[in-house]
Structures are given as structure tokens and as C-alpha cells.
Known about the structure:
mainly alpha
Amino acid sequence: MSAATITTYQWYLAIHILAAVIWVGGGTTIHLFALRARAAEDPQRMAAFSADAEWVGTRVFTPVSLVLIVFGFLLIHEGNWDYKFWIVFPIVVWIASFISGAGFLGPQSKRLKLAIDRGDTVEAQTIQDRIFLVSRVELLFLTLVVLDMALKPGN
């Protein structure tokens, strides 16, 4: 198949999948790095990790999640898809994840770095535990979305 025969739908799908790979794969990688930083029990390593995670979240995950949703809607339109469960579920998870990232994970990562910089280990541990819990739940739901999109239950 030459580039001239690739359809608009296929281009939209390729961009959508690439955005999902960056977002979910990146989130998985960040989570693994978080586990390593936490296991090291080194406040400076955790502070550096927290700053990096916040940076990646705002400069990579937020824009790529917007690309993902825009191209998802373009796919729905181009493919004349109905809003069945396998389409609605990812939209709901995207909304929850976007709100969680912008409203909780990003700000909490900043607070964690500040608490570590102040040497407040009790507050840092509390914030860290909350971030890990929310990020694990979010990662679980994002993984379920990947399965949902691949399997398209009810389609």
C-alpha cells in the first residue's frame, strides 16, 4: 500500500494510537521510576523524581492526551461510529484522568517536592502515598481503556 492509498481514517487512527502509546506507556514508565525512587529512600532522589514527573505531566502527558481525544473524536466522526460502551468508557476515563492530572497529580507533585526540600518527611510521605494511590488507579483505568479499544466489547 502506498502513502497515497492510506485513508484519512488510517492517519487519524495512527496518530490516535501513537498518542495512546506515549501517554499510557509513559505513565507506566513514570510509575516504575516512582517505585524505584521510593525504594531508594533518598529524599533528594524523590524530590528530583517529583520535579521530573511534574514536568513530564504538564509538558508531555497533557498535550498528548489532548491529541488523543481530538483524534478519537475525529475517528468517531470519520468512521461513523455510534457512541457504544467501548467508545463512551474511554471518554469518561479520559475526562477523569485529565481532571486528576491537572487538578491533583500535578499540584501534589509540586507539593511533594516542596515538602522534601523543607525536610518535612511526614508530609512528604503522606503526599507520596496519595500520589501513588491515585496514579495506580489511573494507570489501571488507562490499561483497561487500551484493552477496551483493542477488543471493542459489544461492537
